[in-house]
Known about the structure:
The chain is an alpha+beta fold. It has helices at 2-12, 41-45, 50-66; strands spanning 20-25, 29-35, 69-75. Strand 1 (20-25) and strand 2 (29-35) form a beta hairpin. The two termini are 21 Å apart. The relative contact order is 0.23.
Amino acid sequence: MKELLEAMAKALVDRPEEVVVKEVEGERTTVFELRVATTDLGKVIGKQGKTARAMRTILGAAGTKIGKRCVLEILE
């Protein structure tokens, strides 16, 4: 999951070396914290949050396969 999120984020940004994904696991929920360069923040969020929503949808679908709820937080 973490690798999937990293690959998606690195494909979107200008500075892929600054993409950092931290995974915080709970009992039934996993929170993924995504950090990108400040200049790339808009690219990851997208117009009206559509790109971020799409990433969350893909993450949620992949999480359903393994029986966990996955949450994506985009941090500055």
